Task: structure prediction
Amino acid sequence: MNTIDKLPKSHVFNGKRYKIRWRRPPGRTPKELKGHKIDGLCSDPRDPATNRILYVFPDDTEENVVNTILHESLHAELWMLDEETITRVANSLSGLLEKIKIISKERQFGQFSNFSIT
Ligand SMILES: [Zn+2]
Result:
């Protein structure tokens, strides 16, 4: 069993169940984004349940992956917040977790060296 299979496939945010996909959002390759990479995406909580998906790209350092998890989870929980606020809070929290040494800037999240990006 691949490590990725052990990660949760869904979670309830603010009363709405989201599917969790541990990969980059579809159609968002670095080339399409002209060098900017998108490591996560959160659908609108008002979308039908089948379309409510939270994407997190897991092939990165613990701090970056946890930052993405926090960022997208904050969107799901507090959809009305603007991008700047979400980014500020996620950066603050992941920075604190890194200071406490719960997560590291150096360690890879999980052991995803064989994880293939689809
Ligand atoms: Zn965002």
In short: The first helix runs from residue 62 to 77.
